[in-house]
């Protein structure tokens, strides 16, 4: 079907989002068309603000609007533990459960040689630099329970263990192939409590 050019561009833009196919993109575009002007302006401003105002924390690599981020700056956080996660959305998932009070380190992905992602493409070097601080006693590896997540956990454990720092892996309780982002707080809490040495 042929749509007017501005509508076609909006549909195309929505299709670039993950999980949005042509039908959903079309439905969203027509929904936006019906919105009051002020709601459309607020949506556009929110999209621009995300790109304009957010940056990456220079310490943990989480998404933030200030550097260092609120978690790294918080003097009440337990600096003896660092929880290593794949993406910033995983920090948000862990924080929702309110059971972990340590620090984080965002890798920016997982090892995936088939996709050309090796150790150099991840924030592993900066993690190892953070571990030079003798305050850190435990690194909790909370990568997703996928093949790549497990491979990344094993790789990190081999790098960190010689330093004498305890390395643990969150326990299963998360479904294999699942993402931290979609786990409920109880599942995440059980997985964190049941972590084990790697």
Structure, described:
May play a role in DNA repair. It seems to be involved in an RecBC-independent recombinational process of DNA repair. It may act with RecF and RecO. Keywords: DNA damage, DNA recombination, DNA repair, Metal-binding, Zinc, Zinc-finger. One of its GO terms (molecular function) is zinc ion binding. This is Recombination protein RecR. InterPro entries: DNA_Rcmb_RecR (IPR000093), Rcmb_RecR (IPR023627), Rcmb_RecR_Znf (IPR015967), TOPRIM_dom (IPR006171), TOPRIM_RecR (IPR034137). The protein has 198 residues and is of the alpha/beta class. The chain folds into 2 domains: 5-53, Helicase, Ruva Protein, domain 3 (Orthogonal Bundle); 76-197, Dna Topoisomerase Vi A Subunit, Chain: A, domain 2. Helices cover 43% and strands 14% of the residues. The chain contains 8 helices and 7 strands; from the N terminus they run αααββαβαβαβαβαβ. The strands form 2 sheets. The chain has a 5-stranded mixed sheet with strand order 4-3-5-6-7. A two-stranded antiparallel ribbon has the order 1-2. α1 crosses α2 (22-34) and α5 (88-97) crosses α8 (185-193). The longest helix is centred in the first third of the chain and has 17 residues, at 37-53. It is elongated and about 65 Å long. The N and C termini lie far apart (55 Å).
């Amino acid at each position: 079907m042929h749509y007017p050019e501005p509508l076609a561009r909006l549909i195309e833009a929505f299709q670039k989002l993950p999980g949005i196919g042509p039908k959903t993109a079309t439905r969203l575009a027509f929904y936006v068309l019906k919105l009051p002007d002020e709601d459309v302006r607020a949506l556009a401003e929110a999209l621009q603000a995300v790109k304009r105002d957010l940056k990456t924390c220079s310490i943990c690599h989480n998404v933030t609007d200030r550097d260092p981020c609120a978690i790294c700056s918080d003097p009440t956080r337990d600096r003896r533990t660092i929880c290593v996660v794949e993406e910033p959305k995983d920090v948000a998932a862990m924080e929702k459960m309110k059971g972990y009070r340590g620090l984080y380190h965002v890798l920016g992905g997982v090892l995936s040689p088939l996709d050309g992602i090796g150790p150099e493409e991840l924030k592993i070097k900066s993690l190892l630099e953070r571990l030079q601080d003798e305050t850190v006693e435990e690194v909790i590896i909370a990568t997703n329970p996928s093949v790549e997540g497990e491979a990344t956990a094993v790789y990190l454990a081999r790098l960190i263990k010689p330093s004498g720092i305890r390395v643990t892996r969150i326990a299963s309780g998360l479904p294999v192939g699942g993402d931290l982002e979609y786990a409920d707080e109880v599942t995440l809490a059980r997985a964190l409590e049941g972590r084990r040495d790697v």
